[in-house]
Design a protein that fits this description.
This protein is α/β, with parallel strands linked by helices. 35% of the residues lie in helices and 18% in strands.
Length: 170
């Protein structure tokens, strides 16, 4: 996993569903960059034209509810976002995000204080989220080292490929 994620916050409310993250009409593709071109377009028409690599999506309760497809976290990665911070995640979105290597962090206190446009720094190894705009720091439980490695490798499939390759070479 990267040492630190830094970017501008894009804040959304509770119950952002997977169709809001990536509209169903674009699910014909499994390519992250292609999906990223349409990320959040029905919720926020400004997002895709203004998002920058490293930006952070911030959501309320139950972020990623809806379908079980991996397209939603892929679209977020494809749009260039470094991570998602939410008060809570839908279980299937949580698992899919890990599977595709998208770092996610549950931190209701940070979500309450963060506003769209705030500058955010996340240190996943230390378990800190810092709102540099407001000068506030929040704690989150860091991922276990193997999950950090899984995310650093780009998700479950690349992680398993790397482990199998390493095992063959041993």
């Amino acid at each position: 996993m990267a040492n630190t994620f830094k970017g501008k916050a894009w804040k959304y409310g509770d119950n952002v569903d997977t169709d809001g993250i990536i509209p169903a009409r674009y699910l014909v593709s499994g390519d992250a960059r292609e999906l990223g071109k349409h990320c959040m377009e029905d919720l926020d028409s400004r997002f895709i034209s203004q998002v920058e690599d490293g930006d952070v999506i911030v959501g309320g309760e139950n972020f990623g509810c809806g379908s079980s497809r991996e397209h939603a976290p892929l679209a977020i990665k494809g749009a260039g976002c470094s991570c998602v911070i939410a008060s809570s995640f839908a279980r299937i979105f949580f698992r899919n995000a890990i599977n595709v290597g998208l770092p996610i962090f549950e931190c209701p206190d940070a979500v309450k204080d963060i506003e769209t446009g705030d500058r955010i720094e996340v240190d996943p190894s230390a378990g800190t989220i810092r709102n540099t705009t407001k000068g506030r720091t929040y704690s989150v439980i860091p991922f276990a080292p193997f999950l950090q490695e899984l995310i650093r490798e780009g998700g479950l499939v690349p992680y398993v490929r790397q482990r199998l390759s390493a095992a063959k070479g041993a």
